[in-house]
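Q: My labmate handed me this sequence with no annotations at all. I'd like to see what the chain might look like in three dimensions before we decide whether it's worth expressing. Could you predict it?
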Amino acid sequence: MKNHPVVSGKDLNIIKAIASPMAFHCGETLFEEGEPEDAIYVVQRGTVESGHPVDIHKWVDFGPFGTVDIPNGHEKCHATTPLQNSCTQTSGAVLGGRGLFNHSHYSSSAICQTNCDLMRLDAEQLVYLKTVSPKLFHLLVDDMA
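A: Here is what I predict for the chain of 145 residues:
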């Protein structure tokens, strides 16, 4: 499933002026399900997949030599964990945020499927965004809900 862009054009420029720029390589993890949620990410360039991690291990019994854990080969970008119930995020998409202000945890994992440029906004930056552009702040918050 592909997510629709939430932010575009002029709004991306406003966020870019406030946010912390981040670059990730293909296969890198932005955040994992269950980690404390400390920021939202806006995709500027690239493709990010979000969803729930799938167990990628296969246990092989070698009799008297023991059991060995062997990855089952579903890996993309050299070391990416496959995700179920996933959503593909591209330019303008917002990742995270549902638990940012109540000290919750990420409800899914997010992994870069290509090299990505993202803009990271923590709670303090989002509060500042509210003073600079209340309409954009509410657009982001409504998408988080």
